[in-house]
Amino acid sequence: MIGEENLEAVALDEKRGELLIIDQTLLPNEFRRIGLRTTEDIWEAIGRLRVRGAPAIGIAAGFGGYLAARSSNAADTPGMFRDFLKAKERLASARPTAVNLFHALDRLEKKFRTLLDAPRSVAENAILAEAKAIRDEDAAMCRALGENALSLLKPGMGILTHCNAGQLAASRLGTALAPIYLGQERGYRFKVFADETRPLLQGARLTAFELMRYGIDVTLICDNMAAAVMDRGWIQAVLVGCDRVAANGDTANKIGTSGVAILAKYHNIPFYVLGPTSSIDMTCPSGREIKIEERPAGEVTDLWYEKPMAPKGVKVFNPAFDVTDHALISGIITQYGVAKPPFEEAFEQFFRVKGIGD
Ligand code: MRU
Asked: What class does CATH assign to 10-142?
């Protein structure tokens, strides 16, 4: 079954005390797992996008927090907690946009605070269990939201996806790619179009790589070809992931997502955002409050080229994400169901009914 034997973008080697990640900067040419021991190594790996995708970053931070506690030299739990807090602060500074990073670290801190009177070994085990729960819950949420999304799709549909929101970006099935994997198991024969997503080529390097592994019909296009494939009538739905969804439904995702949403609106194609509730930030009223990461100019001018492809010293603007206005979104698909506008009410109902978000 797809997702049972998955790529495992992030894993914990408990024996060695290492976070094991697939170095995604090397894909698709080289498949290499690397072991990360220290907070600094994990911070670097998140910042350099060796591990990326909102849920995967959250899982990495969860295990990173545990490893920091485990490697603390403190004799007691309060001392270990202080070392954890230092690591938490550092890891939280690795990237600013994906809210899963902060949710995972806050969740560990909350757990830690209930354990301050416990012996160190007990606290350490409880933190490990919490970090594993973040990963396991993500896998379950991805499957459930994939099923919810699949119920909106029909066999043979052409689907456009932007960036990579698959196994490499989360655990197990991923988010935007989850219904595609589930559909593949059930003979849906989707025709997927993967945007390459300049400047980092995640569609080309990661989504095409992932989908081809499972024999899924995938066609690679450059970002600026989306309008052309929509115009030809080849796309019946757009599925994208999210790094942070504000309370009103405005959604931060890989740069270029909002352009795809505008095109989809023009062509009357449903545009769906797929994400676990851990990507929803109810403390952010709208997209205006979401901090958008800006990345080095070299990603635009030099990276992936043999020679620089821009004049030396040219001014560059390189935001990693943009915000798609909620008015362009047909539905936000979570593990609890499909939120339709007004999104804030729908989210509140999810959180109320399921008793989460407290
Ligand atoms: O910069 P990245 O590669 O981390 O950006 C990833 C995305 O924008 C994904 O769509 C998002 O994190 C959702 S991953 C399930």
From this structure: mainly alpha
List, for residues 251-276, the tens digit of each pLDDT value: 999 999 999 999 999 999 999 999 99
For residue 73 the two structure tokens come to: 């030299």
Q: Of 138, 243, 250, 281, which residue is the catalytic one? A: 243
Q: Where along the chain do the CATH 1.20.120.420 domains lie?
A: 10-142
Global pTM value: 0.96
Alpha-carbon distances, residue 305 vs 47, 126, 294 (angstroms): 21, 46, 20
Quick: pLDDT tens for 276-324.
Answer: 999 999 999 999 999 999 999 999 999 988 999 999 999 999 999 999 9
Q: Whose CA is nearest to atom 10 of ligand 1?
A: 241
250 is catalytic: no
H/E element holding 75? none
Ligand 1 binding residues, C-beta < 6 A: 49, 52-55, 98, 163, 165, 169-170, 174-175, 202, 241-243, 253-254, 320
Q: Any idea which architecture 144-354 has in CATH? A: 3-Layer(aba) Sandwich (3.40)
- Rounded distance from Cα 70 to ligand 1 centre (Å): 29
Closest Cα to atom 15, ligand 1: which residue? 165
User: Cα dist. 178→88, 143, 166 in Å?
Assistant: 30, 7, 7
